[in-house]
Amino acid sequence: MTEAEFFEEIKAQFSQKLPLVVYRKPKEDTLCSIFQNEDSLLSVNNFEETGFVFAPFDQEGPVVLLRPDRCGKLPGYTPRAGCAKKGRRPVLSAHGKGFHLDLVRKGLSEIRSGVFDKVVLSRSFSMPTEAEPLDLFKNLVEKYQNAFCYLWYHPKVGMWLGATPEILLNVRNRTFTTMSLAGTQVYRGDENPEWGEKELTEQKYVTDYILDALKGRVDDLKHARTETVRAGKLLHLRTKISGRLKDSNLAEILSALHPTPAVCGLPKESTRKFIVSHEDYPREFYTGYLGELNFQVERKRNNRASNPEVQVYKSISRQTTLFVNLRCLKLEGSEIKIYVGGGVTKESDPEKEWEETVSKSRTMLDIL
User: Fold this and answer.
1) Per-residue pLDDT for 25 more than 70?
2) Which of residues 212 and 159 earns the better pLDDT score?
3) E strand intervals along the chain
4) Are the CB atoms for 299 and 315 separated by under 8 Å?
5) Nearest Cα to Cα of residue 136 among 177, 182, 172, 87
6) Which residue has the higher pLDDT, 184 or 147?
7) Neighbours of 168 (CB within 10 A)
8) What's 327's DSSP letter?
9) Residue range 126-133: mean pLDDT, rounded
10) Averaged over 164-180, what is the pLDDT?
11) How far apart are CA 55 and CA 177, in angstroms?
């Protein structure tokens, strides 16, 4: 399939108002597309299904399943600079700053009172755009090679785009990996900078929560050293965690992990209630998760050229790869809604928390 054919198929699906997703995994050059042939709104029942899932922040909401009636791939895709129409750089407004500062102060008050240890507080803002969805997607792919970049559409739900650096869960057969990702600073040319106490504490909260949540549910649970990773113009702290599922308990593992302290807080239930009660908008799919559920992956068992007869033997594995829906936007006609947030701990300063959301908003603003 040529590049032109790949994107024409996507445009045809849009024109018929039928569900689709097009995406590129981190550090890969293959674009993948999935099309559902009719507009039924499907949901996951037990995570034994196969398809592309899109889950909201609120665990009570249904996990949308996009059935893979048709799939496409475009290997070796090289995005061209400046795919979207050129326009003026969006001007960041301070609208909503007062509310967000008060929200952070309320969170700090609850922390000091011992109600919870950390809470992730977010905001949204809207602005007009004339950009085409596919142009925005191409710009995401060009700018954020280390992120999972996607364009997702369902006529009964809406259109979302994003570039997220955080894996929620990767499972191949019974082996899984996940990560804790917390702490943020602007990249200034040094990929191994010093980190402050606030960011280090925040990262430890997330790592400890994930390890405790998985204890007893998986075998051979272990974690690697914490490292600094870059996502566009931002740096984060990351700790990889791995193990083996005991049985077919993917639904149980996802329930334990989502929403993580990186997008909700600690303890999970009290911070979730605070977020729902005090943020001035519904998060919907922001800070939810999305990705491939139970896809079959075919691999050769022997790649040595000296033994070609062995190459006919292939192994089939079942793989699930899910990402946390960070750095995203919702496209509604000629307007986009952008979502940003940050973790609040006892060391937080409201003004700095506001500035962190401004820095994070540039991930999406830079593609316009």
Assistant:
1) yes
2) 159
3) 20-24, 31-35, 42-43, 51-55, 64-66, 70-74, 118-128, 148-154, 158-164, 167-172, 175-186, 218-223, 227-231, 234-245, 265-266, 289-300, 314-324, 328-332, 335-344
4) yes
5) 87
6) 147
7) 27
8) S
9) 92
10) 90
11) 19
Q: Could you tell me the residue ranges of all domains in the chain?
A: 3-298+312-365
3-298+312-365, what's its fold? Anthranilate synthase (3.60.120)
Q: What's the whole-number average pLDDT of the chain?
A: 89
Task: Report CA Rg, the chain.
Answer: 21
Which three-class secondary structure state does DSSP give residue 10? helix
The answer for residues whose C-beta is within 8 angstroms of residue 54's C-beta and 6 or more apart is: 21, 63, 64, 66, 152, 154, 157, 160, 285, 288, 290
SS3 358: helix
* Location of structure tokens 């593992």: 253
In this predicted structure, what is the pLDDT of residue 230?
A: 87
Question: Residue 109 above 90 pLDDT?
Answer: yes
pLDDT in tens, 272-331: 999 999 999 999 999 999 999 999 887 666 555 556 555 556 667 789 999 999 999 999
| H helical segments located in the chain | 3-15, 97-112, 133-143, 197-214, 250-257, 268-278, 350-365
Location of structure tokens 């909401």? 61
Q: Which two tokens stand for residue 94?
A: 């301070």
302 contacts 138 by C-beta, under 8 angstroms: no
Q: Are 228 and 191 in contact (CB under 8 A)?
A: yes
Among the listed residues 178, 181, 182, 171, the one whose alpha carbon sits nearest the alpha carbon of residue 242:
178
pLDDT category at 247 given cuts 50, 70, 90 is confident
pLDDT over 70 for what percent of the chain?
92
Going across the sheet that includes 31-35, the strands are 70-74, 31-35, 20-24, 148-154, 158-164, 328-332, 335-344, 118-128, 265-266
| Amino acid sitting at position 8 | E
pLDDT of 93 over the 70 cut: no
Q: Shortest CA distance to 178 belongs to which of 132, 218, 232, 234?
A: 218
Residue 77 Cα to chain centre, angstroms? 22
Asked if 291 and 68 touch (Cβ cutoff 8 Å), the reply is no
> Taking the mean position of all CA atoms in its chain, how far away is CA 50?
19
